[in-house]
Request: fold
Amino acid sequence: MSEKKNTVSVAKDPRSPWTKFLSLNGSGVFLALVVWVIFLVIFCPIINNVTFDVGTNIISVFKQQAYLGVIAAGLTLVMITGNIDLSVGSMLTLMTCIVPDLYNSMGFAGALIGGLVIGGLFGLVNGALVAGLGLNAFITTIAMGCVYGSLAIIYSEGGYKVVQNASSAFNFFGKGMIGGIIPASVITLAIVVVVLAFLLNRTVFGQRLYAIGANPTAARFSGVRSRRDLALTYVITGMMVGLSAVMTIANVGNSNPQAASGKEMDIVLAVVLGGTSVMGGKGSVWGTAIGFAFIGFLSNGFTALGLSQYAQWVITGIILVAALSADVLKDKGVKLWKRK
Amino acid sequence: MEEKVMARPLGKPNGKKLLSDYSSVLIVAVLWVICFIAINRFGKSFYQIFREASAYGLIAIGLSVVMITGNIDLSVGYQAGVCAVVSIMTINATGSIPLAVIAAIVVGGVFGLVNGTVVTRIGVSPLIATIAMNYIYKGLSYAKTKDGSLQADSDYKDALKNIYSNSLGVKVLTVSVIVLVVMLVLFFFIQKKTDFGNSLYIVGDNIEAGRFAGIKVDNVAHMAYILCGACCGLAGFLMASKDGAALYTQGDGKDTFAISCCVIGGVAMTGGKGNMFNVLMGVLVMRTITTVLSVKGVSSTYTDLISGALLIVVLIVDSLSHRDKK
Reply:
């Protein structure tokens, strides 16, 4: 008997490829994304007399929104543990006010490292409150969002912080195009997604996060130091906010104390659309990337269709509610009026 | 006859329990004493706290009903914003204030119905569902106000403003404040004295137990959303009556404010805990701080900072006091 025959053979998955695909995180949103893009390609020429060039739009969506995707990837870790961070929008605002000063005094490397460190510290504050003191994550981070938001205005005295003498490397980091096609910010986003996905799927730390999200008590009894791990997810999210702020500043060149308010809603929605459960224990960084692309394409498509901002909000809401409902119903089987 | 289900533990009240149940009264009292001592002529602006509390308070009342069932509604601010637009439109079309009130409440109720359907019938997480719904309400309210305001016709404007700011004898007593008090008493009564009120707490406390006890838990949670929407509708009308116009920013930030009021007022985020009286105290705390800061000429930036920090402190104190009990 050779060694190989003793190993347990994994039963062949009897499900059809289609069912397997549907059970993946974010598959529903991916389908919706494809449908939406096809819709745009067909209807943009009819409604608004413009052709919707898929290639250019993919690049522009990712280029404009990459900075939010970075945060969404970080927030995925927090949400997998069943917690949430609603302060990321205001934290981003505050960080974008700090980063120009960092750059002006310490240069590109200083801004990058300083951004990661300071962002990480803000994350640590959130983590200390939520994980250390055991406060309700939702309400605590809303409150911290108020604090960060006002600190941003106080720090920048309500005005703009401007980057002086931006080096070519700094400019390239923000708005450069590699080979004239791929934006540098997208490369940053891709690196972040790969690293965080690796952390989540291929390390013990990542597996512990799923355990905490699925059942915190069971995780603690199994020897998971859930408080430390949870705090760490907040620190990682904070660092991603710092990175995102550097990307924003490198792209735009100045801070705006109003710019990122309310962005946390977009970010949370991107994570949830990507199949991460708000209850925790389920989700993936890849899914978040898809959810983030969907949100990006929504607003991008509306602009191509020539809708007003107000109509955009209303239709975004309707599509989001439909997508979220479809996702829930998919898991439940369609029994609309009888919950359990 | 069916026996009434008692959600709350019976027993004689003791001092310690009273203190922990009504600690928000203490906060308000201490806050006011400090204000009267530290701030010159605080008494002159004291009435403002109550006037401004009316619209905010109504939203907080509605939200607290939803929060007691263990759900949340993050779209309350813009629900009220749309209802403000609706009431102005109704007044301009019909010239009747009672009709405007009814229209606002009905539209608010419909919003609650929709939110409740998505959350309780379909089963989307309340947090995410109401964030998504908020986009819809925001779009609707901006569509009519167009980055500005929707003014009431001049014939009705004064009548509207009177509701908000014309005092009846005492400076504190305006129609809007009376509306708030009536609604508070009404909801206090519903929660304490009716089966529906009891089932609200059971659904928030232990939804499975509620289901086994024969309570239609989904219906109760759905009804909570509808009541919340109706409260927002009424609040929207009051907001419109303040300026005789619906402003485009009117819905902004009201949801965070209302959540703060509820949490300071002891409504648990996990549901099953909280009462109207304490929610009122929460509203008064928040309004007092905002009023004091605006009287002192402090910019609204610091208001956010201070209310955020205060909320954190309340949460920490709350969690520490619970830790002692273990």
About this structure: The beta strands of chain A are 177-178, 182-183. Chain A is about 75% helix and 0% strand.
